[in-house]
Amino acid sequence: MPSQHPEETGHGHVVEGYVTRTYGGLPRYLVLNSARFLSPRWWHATRFTRHLLNDAAAITDEELAALLAYEWRSRLTAAWLIGVDRRERFRDRVGDLLLASEVCYSGGAYCFALARFGTHADAEILTAYLDHYLPRTDLHYDQPSALGALLRLDAHLGTHHADRFTEPDGLWDEWVKGAQRLGHPGHTPAEAHHWTDLQCDFANGWRRR
User: What is the pLDDT along the chain (209 residues), one digit of tens a residue?
Assistant: First the structure.
């Protein structure tokens, strides 16, 4: 999926308008990626959240498509806006980008969006991702985010898609061993699930003002 600058499609305003807008000197994409907005001690959390919700409602599908066609900062921000507003019509595009794993950092945002959509179709996308990337114990991509989102969907839908990944000495345990050999910290399924819950509950708990 080749990258295309939004200016090429007449949407040159979207990066400054939605991606690099600053809060306490930090651009929005960095606040989203670091989850700083989840800290009650961050002074800008209320303003940041209000603007995020308003922009998620106001941004057009064409503007979102332009962001998703660009680099990781724009894709990460677009996926968050899509997830916050639950624009399920972007499911296939988000799923394709997640499975392709072309750029860094944005995968966790795709998983957030799929968790927010909350359907069996989203669980199938996350399952396909884990089937493809958990056996790759040499890659530390977005496996924790995908498992966390799948576990949330299982809890919501009453399904058990994640069971075969998390059984003792199964694919998840083997992948964690590989990640630790690469110097990355280990992640338990419960930790991954909790992190997705924090993100989604944040989005559920606010309303536009």
Answer: 568 999 888 898 999 999 999 999 999 999 999 999 999 899 999 999 999 999 999 999 999 999 999 999 999 999 999 999 999 999 999 999 999 999 999 999 999 999 999 999 999 999 999 999 999 999 999 999 999 999 999 999 999 999 999 999 999 999 999 999 988 888 899 999 999 999 999 998 865 44
Helices (H) and strands (E) counted in the chain, each on its own, are 12, 2
Residue pointed to by tokens 């338990």 = 188
Judge whether 49 and 4 are in contact, CB under 8 Å. Answer: no
3-state helix, strand, coil split of the chain in percent (to 5) is 65, 0, 30
Instruction: Map residue 162 onto helix, strand or coil.
Output: coil
Give the separation between CA 5 and CA 104, rounded to whole angstroms: 17
CA distance 164 to 182: 24
**Contact by Cβ (8 Å): 125, 155:** no
